[in-house]
Write a structure and sequence with these properties.
Elements lengths: L2 E7 L6 H9 L7 E6 L6 H11 L3 E5 L5 H12 L4 E5 L4 E2 L3 H11 L5 E9 L5 E6 H4 L13 H8 L9 E3 L3 H4 L8 H12 L2 E12 L14 H11 L8 H21 L9 H22 L1 H14 L5
Parallel strand pairs: 1-2, 1-4, 2-3, 6-9
Antiparallel strand pairs: 4-8, 5-9, 6-7, 6-8
């Protein structure tokens, strides 16, 4: 069994050595670390070459042009030859049993094509920031959700809840994920397809430490707003019942936007996605919740519906 790591770098001099060492220090060793450097202007490549001397499993590819994160990950994953491909960012730290525990989830779930995990949040110095985890920051309330989790519903209403730096995919996934969509980040694109295929699984353990710092390319944007957003997210996910008209209307909007996203996604013509079924189910949810909103807030609903009609908004 060959294990690959797809790691993308760009001006990662500050943390790249720590991250590489955490990947090398696994209880189950990886066979190759494919590093695609996106034209770093600092000493990132020099550090990688120094590490490569003692660790020939490190393969360094220097991009001729700056591809940016999504296309760079597309390239790195394409170059991986392993049966399992772990995605990695340049500034995090892997727990020593990340590989072993991820592979255990695959073994327990033979239909799994992708496995992600939770993660600690750390600062520049590697100190854990708080009792919050990466799942808190993306509002993935795993413990409270009915099982099995409906990932398609979550992703298209709540947004992506999988951080690519925690994700591992099987090599078979490469047969349908390329080319990456220009409308999505790489992790969101991969995870959406796995959700449609019902092949996305997870570990509840914190298998990496995700670093929060000012220079990261893609990071957590909700940390300072988590409390105010949490209530709305819980309503979206069906964990709390909407109380005000604003909350009813907000949920209606999310159901509407899910329908729009499903329609947009249909242009990719994936044979394994039953778009008609998904759209019919979502339209039924829209109709049922519309009736609930009318009953709970008849006057407000009538006024806002009239305004929406005049403005051409939310018409399915």
């Amino acid at each position: 069994m060959k294990l690959s790591v797809a790691l993308c770098t760009y001006n990662g001099i500050k943390f790249i050595e720590q991250q590489i060492n955490s990947i090398l220090n696994q209880t189950i060793k990886v066979d190759e670390i494919i590093v695609c450097d996106d034209k770093s202007t600092d000493a990132t490549v020099s550090i990688l070459k120094e590490l490569q001397v003692a660790n020939p499993c490190i393969v360094i590819i220097e991009n001729e042009i700056n591809l940016r994160s999504t296309k760079n990950f597309e390239k790195a994953i394409q170059l991986c030859s392993g049966e399992y491909i772990f995605l990695a960012d340049q500034d995090d730290l892997w727990n020593t049993e990340k590989v072993a525990k991820t592979l255990a989830i695959f073994k327990e779930n033979p239909t799994a094509e992708g496995v992600f995990s939770n993660a600690d949040l750390i600062d520049d110095n590697g100190i854990i920031l708080s009792n919050k985890t990466i799942w808190n920051s993306v509002f993935f309330f795993e413990k409270e959700m009915p099982k099995p989790i409906e990932f398609v519903d979550i992703i298209f209403k709540n947004g992506n809840i999988v951080t690519g730096a925690t994700l591992c995919i099987k090599k078979e996934v490469k047969s349908f994920i390329f080319p990456f969509s220009e409308d999505n980040l790489h992790d969101e694109w991969i995870v959406s397809l796995l959700a449609f295929r019902n092949t996305l699984y997870y570990s509840t353990e914190n298998l990496i430490s995700y670093r929060i710092h000012e220079n990261q390319q893609v990071g957590m944007k909700n940390l300072d707003k988590m409390e105010e957003i949490t209530r709305r997210k819980r309503v979206i996910l069906g964990l709390d019942t909407p109380k005000s008209f604003q909350e009813y209307r907000f949920l209606l909007k999310k159901i509407f936007l899910k329908q729009k996203e499903l329609v947009n996604f249909q242009k990719y013509n994936f044979a394994f996605i039953d778009f008609q079924k998904l759209q019919s189910e979502n339209l039924l949810e829209w109709k049922l919740f519309t009736e609930k909103t009318k009953k709970a807030f008849p006057i407000q609903y009538k006024i806002t519906s009239l305004i929406d009609t005049l403005l051409g908004k939310r018409t399915l």
